[in-house]
From TrEMBL:
Enzyme Commission number(s) of this protein: 3.1.26.4
Domain named RNase H type-2: residues: 1-185
Species the sequence originates in: Arcobacter aquimarinus
Gene3D superfamilies: Ribonuclease H-like superfamily/Ribonuclease H
The protein, known as: Ribonuclease HII
Length: 190
């Protein structure tokens, strides 16, 4: 059996990185890359995936991303998924172009659109992250997280200019619009 792995939240300037691993136990109709599905369709599939699979979801908050870097958080999340699901499958496949130095992890570009287990993981990661951002939005009204989910939209950057960063923001992600340097430079294990 195959465990598909995918992430949501690698690029936002606020909120967690969420990585999900999914082993499908039953067939599910309509799976695809979460980015091409409507929010309504993702929400419907989310519950069905949870009912018809073994899965594990890992959150890495903004503070951990700042302290350890994205690569560390991704690798540790994948290792946690492997550790939790290894008794139920014999193969692990990650969407993307790297296996993060993990010997038993295979990778494939666009796997989230072509491999049903990875599509399911994509949906679990995206919906979990979106629900988290919607949940915290009322505590951070000035940033309107429910609208952009922490991505660097113009309105979000303007809110940071006005109010500064919150504890949900990634301080290590430098913003050109704020005159910060080293855009996109993050710590790496490699």
């Amino acid at each position: 059996m195959l465990c598909g792995i995918d992430e949501a939240g690698r690029g936002p300037i606020a909120g967690p990185l969420v990585v999900a691993g999914v082993i499908l136990l039953e067939d599910i109709v309509g799976l695809n890359d979460s980015k091409v599905l409507s929010e309504k369709k993702r929400e419907k599939l989310f519950d069905e995936i949870k009912e018809k699979s073994k899965y594990h979801i890992v959150f890495s908050d903004a503070k951990l991303i700042d302290e350890k870097g994205l690569s560390f958080c991704l690798k540790n999340s994948i290792l946690e998924i492997i550790n939790n699901l290894k008794d139920f499958c014999d193969e692990f496949l990650m969407d993307g172009n790297t296996s993060f130095g993990i010997d038993i992890l295979k990778h494939k570009i666009k796997a989230d659109a072509t491999i049903k287990e990875v599509s399911a993981a994509s949906i679990l990661a995206k919906v979990s992250r979106d629900r988290y951002m919607n949940k915290i939005a009322s505590n951070y009204k000035e940033y309107e997280f429910q609208k952009h989910k922490g991505y660097g939209t113009k309105a979000h950057v303007e809110a940071i200019k006005k109010y500064g960063r919150s504890d949900e923001h990634r301080y290590s992600f430098k913003l050109k619009a704020l005159g910060e340097e080293n855009i996109g430079i993050q710590k790496s294990l490699f």
